[in-house]
Design a protein that fits this description.
Elements: E1 2-6, E2 9-13, E3 17-23, H1 31-44, E4 50-56, E5 69-73, H2 80-87, E6 92-96, H3 118-129, E7 133-136, H4 139-149, E8 154-156, E9 177-183, H5 188-204, E10 208-214, E11 227-230, H6 239-244, E12 250-253, H7 259-262, H8 267-274, E13 279-282, E14 297-300, H9 305-313, H10 316-329, H11 335-347
Parallel strand pairs: 3-4, 3-5, 5-6, 6-7, 7-8, 9-10, 9-12, 10-11, 12-13, 13-14
Antiparallel strand pairs: 1-2
Helix pairs in contact: 1-11, 5-9
Length: about 350
Amino acid sequence: MRTVLVAGRTGPLTSPSVWGVHYFRTELPDPCSWYRIVQPFDALNGRGWDARRQSSAAPPPDVSLDADIFVLQGGDRPDAARVLTERSKVQRLVYETDDDYFAVPAAQPQAHDKYRRADVRGFIAANMRACDMVTVTTPVLAESVRTHSGHPNVVVVPNCVPDGVLGLARFRRRGRTVIGWTGSGNRAHDFAVIRDAVVSVLRSTRRAEFHFMGTDYRHMLPKDVPARHTHPVACSISWETWFGGYDFDIAVCPLAGIPFNMARSPIKAIEAMALGIPVLAADAPPYRGIVTDGVTGYLCRAGDWAKRLRELACDRQAREEMGANARHAARAHIMSAGVAAWDAAYRSLL
């Protein structure tokens, strides 16, 4: 029987154990770390695991060497290789990613410049190969990782929302029809896909407005178009707080047609669906199979956005019916259903 020392406590460790680090990131988990480390590890603790996690801007303490499995998220620096090499002697290793580092476009902001460098992509691939498994969010991302890293064991483990989201009553703005989008700081090229459609619909539809949650892209809209912005709330504070900010009547999930986007997770659509919000999503791999066209929302091509936005903005009954369908469909994407995939992936290494 092994013992583990964590936060000053010692005790017998008889269950399989996994230690996850959102590595070289901020102290508090961002949404990526929350969906890929924090939430699944909390769920694994309910399935017989000793699952522990931490943020780290430097190699984590040696105490985590006592875990059976070490999961590294964000191992995009060359000094990660040393940590992985040492750990491979005593642990099974997992490299976790939800972004296609091998297809970062020039349109991304300066913070992502390093991912377009051949040497950076080279040591990311090397760090992946140093691990026993790579976990990713989608089949498209899995194929990219296999192609560029040569790793033989890439496992798809989809993102899920907390079970409790299904029971939340979202805030509704009386007398307003809210079209909303949750976009991060590198998505201006995605919003550009629907900008003209949004302007057209908001100018012609009474009592409709746009709500940006996350990054503020109001500068991309004319001054006369009604729009507002809500700053993001760290998932580490409370997922109830984050999901409680959704006051959308219609959620939009646009994507520019670039390879990087084809590997994205559909989590933004799933978040809205779980709250009973119909989704207009790009007709692209991330959303096919998630959004059912005409049932839980619409899959849109270039010429569809204005038409579908106007239809739903003007038809409350259609929004309510699609929203109810969407919430029902989201039951397949809650953590109590999805944790089995995490459990199976990690147990395959024991």
